[in-house]
Write a structure and sequence with these properties.
Blueprint (H helix, E strand, L loop, with lengths): L3 H11 L6 H8 L3 H13 L4 E4 L3 E4 L1 H6 L5 H7 L9 E4 L5 H10 L7 E4 L20 E7 L10 H18 L4 E3 L3 E5 L5 E14 L2 E11 L17 H5 L5 H22 L6 H6 L7 E5 L5 E8 L5 E5 L4 E4 L5 E4 L5
Parallel strand pairs: 3-4
Antiparallel strand pairs: 1-2, 4-5, 5-9, 6-7, 7-8, 8-9, 10-11, 10-14, 11-12, 12-13
Helix pairs in contact: 1-3, 2-3, 5-9, 7-9
């Protein structure tokens, strides 16, 4: 059910000209004061609403398209999925969207439930590392309950990587690639690969069966300043494109691509139908890499992936090794990729 603020926004979008406070008051059955308060809140959220005495209010359509408006209403306006993001919960700030979705799962929320936030205060990355989550970016997580074996579940991380890469390319018009298994990278104006997204998949298992899976995504969208620790490897879509990027449109685009890829993955119970497309955006492919195996690190050339999403690396002695996601780290010999 739409809130009063959302109803006012919808009426402003539909209007061809100015809408008076009296018209909005009568249409929605609220006081003129309530209209004014909701208009004020919409302005605080960034909506370019003009107010002219004796004429009323008008939403500037051109400025709205250029603005980075990130809230429930804007995401819903772009959303075109059947089950991904239905329902979804938006928060200006939360601790961790992964934790939010696990909590919703425990309350019986269906597959496809998602949580989205503009800021995280307790985000985490792989191996329990802290995930810095400043303003201007996208932090979101989605709930899955697939009919898969726990061993097959890690491939879903690669499925999400494909979705993010496709969504970023769609919205920015610039190619996004994957650094195996699931970092999304783009080339900056100097041609250096920079990480713009990280993905964390967490799974709960009961009696050797998957109880639920939560995939969390953090995309550097409009962030412009990075800490000294990561500034050599990280960037944002804004820094790479030279302009602000709509987080709401990007959120919806990623979900649309994920729904398509995930449906294929689940229908075929594996990565086989996605392998060729994944390899087409695999930044490591054909590059020299260093495999940081704790037992014995080695160098080689990344060839691509197999039908389960494992990276295939040809060692210097000609033998081919298969690397499962999460087993070891893979780094470029010259640069990040």
């Amino acid at each position: 059910m739409l809130s009063t603020k959302q109803k006012i926004l919808r009426r402003l979008r539909e209007a061809q000209d100015y809408l008076s406070g009296q018209e909005l008051s009568e249409d929605l059955g609220i006081s003129r004061t309530a209209v004014w308060k909701n208009i004020r809140n919409l302005k605080k959220e960034g909506y370019p609403i003009e107010a002219v005495t004796n004429r009323g209010y008008r939403l500037s359509a051109v400025e709205t398209e250029d603005a980075d408006l990130f809230n429930e209403e804007e995401i819903l306006r772009h959303l075109k999925t059947a089950w991904v993001g239905h329902p979804f919960y938006f928060a200006a700030e939360t601790g961790s969207t992964n934790e939010d979705v696990f909590r919703l799962s425990g309350q019986g929320s269906p597959q496809g439930t998602a949580a989205v936030a503009a800021i995280q205060t307790a985000g985490r990355g792989r191996r329990g590392r802290q995930w810095i989550s400043p303003a201007g970016n996208i932090y979101m997580s989605i709930l899955l309950r697939p009919d898969l074996s726990p061993e097959a579940a890690p491939s879903l991380t690669l499925v999400m990587a494909m979705a993010v890469a496709a969504g970023v390319t769609e919205i920015t018009g610039l190619p996004a690639q994957i650094k195996w298994p699931n970092d999304i990278v783009m080339q900056d104006p100097e041609g250096q690969f920079r990480k713009v997204c990280g993905i964390l998949t967490e799974m709960r298992v009961e009696n050797a069966e998957i109880r639920d899976i939560v995939i969390g995504i953090g995309i550097n969208v409009n962030q412009t300043v990075f800490s000294e620790e990561i500034r050599e490897t990280a960037s944002s879509l804004r820094l790479i494109t030279g302009h602000s990027v709509s987080r709401s449109a990007l959120t919806a685009a990623v979900w649309a691509h994920f729904e398509r890829y995930c449906t294929l993955f689940l229908d075929h119970r594996g990565f086989a139908p996605l392998r060729e497309e994944y390899e087409s955006v695999l930044a490591n492919r054909g590059r020299h890499v260093r495999v940081l195996d704790p037992a014995q690190p080695y160098d080689g050339t990344a060839l691509g992936i197999d039908e389960r999403g494992a990276l295939l690396v040809r060692k210097e002695d000609g033998s081919i090794c298969r690397i499962e996601s999460g087993e070891v780290s893979v780094r470029g010999i010259a640069g990040y990729v």
